[in-house]
Design goal:
By secondary structure, the chain is of the alpha+beta class. The chain is 22% helix and 28% strand. It has four domains: 2-130, no CATH class; 150-274, no CATH class; 346-429, Phosphorylase Kinase, domain 1; 440-596, Transferase(Phosphotransferase) domain 1 (Transferase(Phosphotransferase), domain 1). The strands form eleven sheets. The chain has a five-stranded antiparallel sheet, covered by helices on one side. β22 (232-237) and β23 (244-247) form a beta hairpin. It is globular, with a radius of gyration of 28 Å. The model has no long low-confidence stretch (mean pLDDT 78). One of its GO terms (molecular function) is ATP binding.
């Protein structure tokens, strides 16, 4: 046994081979030279005096580090990009890079949930950087103000009712507001008629996971009231509350005040609380005979019990009938795909994804979440788990039937699915380089995609759209062409995915009528008439091509108002013959690109 200068404790066998080393078992401290691989986590201790595991963890996933607080499911509150100057990412492993003059040590702080860098300077340890705090502010931490506490400029308060009533929450300790708030009346799923929502304008939550897209604030509230596990409805919208996204966390930690923004996201949070039941009025009548009360109570209980039995039997019959009808509809719908593998159950996929481990989560959106999985033969796959709230039978069948009947080199291959009771799972081939948006947005000039790769991606998607629109028996309109739905394999070949909104159009049809669907910023003008053709996909593809060339989103609400809309900038630059100014500086043939624009 020995310990080296880096602080790695090693044990050896009789052949002097290492059989165990402390660097393979990270705790709350990351030392220079220590690697962090997929599946490993830094776990902050409960406190500075209690070294047992606390609620905060940091794990590696998809080339970046993600900070979580334990909940069901765990809630994300921070991300560290692998491009940080103190670390390097090689062959699926993070390494903390040593400094020649000083040694940086990264420590995951337990009580603050910060990710801080310490450095020895002349024999004294001092904090030289706080990685997670960068660009986040002091309030964006799960327990900054404890449970239900609202953080504003470092000060903590409790939520107050719309009518100014402060009796829904109280401080855990008025001398220490940062410890958070507790409910005056505990929530109970047995009394949903007593649930109400406190409206907190310009208040947001550190984690925003949308479960409903293209919805207004009122629909967000109603969805939360109908779901007992929902503890708050967070509505994110732009200039108005008429359209936006909805998040419904099942556990509430600290909230934070936000400034109302023009041309950017704004938030309103609705906290679910339990009202006190109204006290029955005091009776002034003469007391009833005790025997009469007992007989009356017995008769009332008998009637209520018989009525409950009747309701239970009726409900069970209807539930059984609905289940049989639903199973029959699934069978009738899915029998159209005789060549599609169906020999997997939900338990198979729970095993393949390690029970949908959050460390294997590749991404997600309004439809649900995507997890990395491994089949019995070692094949890596991507398993899309559709949430019941965000995805119905119609969208699920649309994706299975569409992708199960078409095959193309630039279409993500559907390997199988599971439609077992409430489980709706789609299994696709694994695309190691993820979605296109991660490569063209938020990148530095050093790791920007070279023009040859960008050109190949554009051509790949164009070929797939030509196949869908011209070569299939029925023309297929995708209706959600965007960079997030274009996935890249290890050689940066692009493949189209996510056909849940797709529509089929017979060859003799010139258009189809449908409700407006898709993603803002990629919708063609013809959506205003609701009469859609394949040109809607072509327009969206043009927007993506422009984003690929320019290296930014079409709609960027974080930019100044005059530069939010990339298409408007394109029109102005075309008028003044300055299109070349839009092209991202990444080794591109400017003259050839300008001609293509």
């Amino acid at each position: 046994m020995s310990i080296n200068l880096a602080g790695n404790l090693m044990m050896y066998d009789s052949n002097s081979s290492i059989i165990w080393q402390s660097f393979d078992h990270p705790t709350d401290t990351w030392l220079p030279g220590q690697q962090l691989s997929s599946g490993q986590r830094l776990i902050a201790s409960a406190s500075t005096t209690n070294w047992t595991a606390g609620p905060f963890s940091l794990s590696l996933s998809n080339r970046d580090l993600y900070a979580f607080i334990e909940a069901t499911p765990p809630q994300l509150y921070g991300q560290v990009f692998h491009g940080d100057r103190r670390s390097s990412f090689i062959s699926g492993t993070f390494f903390l890079t040593s400094n020649k003059s000083n040694s940086d040590t990264v420590r995951y702080e337990s009580e603050t949930s910060n990710f801080q860098v310490y450095q020895w300077v002349e024999g004294v340890e001092s904090v030289v950087a706080d990685i997670l705090t960068d660009n986040r502010g002091d309030c964006a931490y799960p327990l900054r103000c404890g449970n239900y506490g609202i953080c504003s400029n470092g000060q903590c308060t409790c939520p107050i009712g719309n009518d100014g009533d402060p009796n829904y929450f109280r401080q855990l300790d008025f001398r220490q507001p940062s410890l958070g708030c507790v409910e005056v009346t505990k929530m109970s799923c047995q009394s949903p008629n007593l649930h109400l929502l406190l409206e907190l304008d310009n208040v947001s939550y550190f984690e925003f996971v949308p479960v409903l897209a293209n919805t207004d604030a009122q629909s967000c509230k109603e969805a939360c009231l109908e779901n007992c596990s929902c503890r708050a409805a967070v509505s994110r919208h732009n200039s108005s509350m008429l359209s936006g996204e909805c998040s419904m966390p099942s556990k509430i930690y600290s909230l934070m005040n936000t400034q109302k923004q023009v041309g950017s996201y704004n938030y309103v949070t609705f906290i679910k609380v339990q009202k006190q039941p109204e006290s029955p009025p005091t009776s002034t009548k003469k007391k009833a005979n005790p025997i009469s009360l007992i007989v009356g109570a017995f008769l009332a209980a008998t009637v209520v019990f018989a009525f409950l039995i009747f309701l239970y039997v009726t409900f069970k019959r209807h539930a059984l009938k609905d289940r049989q009808e639903e199973d029959g509809e699934w069978e009738n719908s899915l029998v159209l795909l005789p060549d599609l593998p169906k020999g997997f159950s939900k338990e198979d996929w729970r095993s393949a994804t390690q029970n949908f481990d959050v460390n294997k989560r590749l991404g997600g959106g309004g439809f649900g979440s995507v997890f990395e999985g491994t089949l019995f033969d070692g094949t890596r796959v991507a398993v899309k788990r559709l949430d019941r709230l965000g995805q119905g039978r119609k969208e699920f069948l649309a994706e299975v039937q569409t992708m199960g009947n078409i095959h193309h080199i630039h279409l993500v291959k559907l390997l199988g699915f599971c439609a077992e009771r409430l489980y709706r799972l789609l299994v696709y081939e694994y695309m190691s380089n993820g979605s296109l948006d991660k490569w063209i947005f938020h990148r530095t000039s050093e790791d920007a995609l070279e023009w040859g790769i960008r050109k190949k991606i554009i051509i790949n998607v164009a070929k797939e759209l030509a196949y869908l629109h011209e070569e299939c028996k029925s023309r297929i309109i995708h209706l959600d062409i965007k960079s997030q739905n274009m996935l890249l394999d290890e050689n940066f070949n692009a493949k189209l995915s996510d056909f849940r909104l797709a529509k089929l159009m017979d060859r003799d049809q010139s258009q189809v009528m449908t409700q407006m669907t898709g993603t803002r910023g990629y919708l063609a003008p013809e959506w205003l008439s609701r009469k859609i053709t394949e040109k809607a996909d072509v327009y969206s593809f043009g927007v993506v091509m422009l984003e690929v060339v320019c290296g930014r989103r079409n709609l960027d609400y974080s930019a100044p108002e005059e530069t939010e809309n990339l298409l408007e900038i394109l029109k102005e630059k075309a008028k003044t013959n300055e299109l070349v100014h839009l092209v991202e500086k990444c080794n591109i043939d400017m003259q050839n690109t300008e001609r293509k624009l």
